[in-house]
Amino acid sequence: MATTADFRNGLVLNYNGDLHVITEFQHVKPGKGPAFVRTKMRNIKTGKVIDNTFNAGVKVETARVEQRPHQFLYKDDYGYNFMDNSSFEQVTLPEAMVPFADLMKEGQEVTILFHAETEQPLTAELPAFVELVVTYTEPGLRGDTATNTLKPAIVETGARIQVPLFIDQDQKIRVDTRDYTYVERVK
Questions:
Q1: Residues 72 and 56 in one domain
Q2: Taking residues 128-134, what's their average pLDDT?
Q3: In what residue span(s) does the Translation elongation factor P/YeiP central domain sit (predicted)?
């Protein structure tokens, strides 16, 4: 059991019979009334994000999970195949358990969450930033930098993201995996 003071991003809760991971939380102390905690939680099985408010000090049931590094191997009809870096065992996860899979390339390091009691894989998490090569984008106009204008681009994994006008084809860029945003060019 934990209280709302123990909330942090990545904490896994047993909420309404399902496992949810906290993606965002904010402690609010209004001028009038008791304090409370606003959270955004993602259901691990369905991937659905819900907003919930907890009163401050409320006890919640946490789930014990373990994070293990894995390497993405390939995708087939059964799902995404990963290999444990230490034991070389392979794990196959269905597409619903791999969020942001279109930003993942072969050989990518990911973290897989396992339920500690049942040893069941729950979800795969990509690192916060990945480096990808732009395979297609329209050419930008020179000198059009007065505004922060974006244009669509396709990266090597097939994902579509928005990039600034000065990004050209075959350039390597860093992408935020949490919201598909361009971060910077990579040398």
A1: no
A2: 93
A3: 67-122
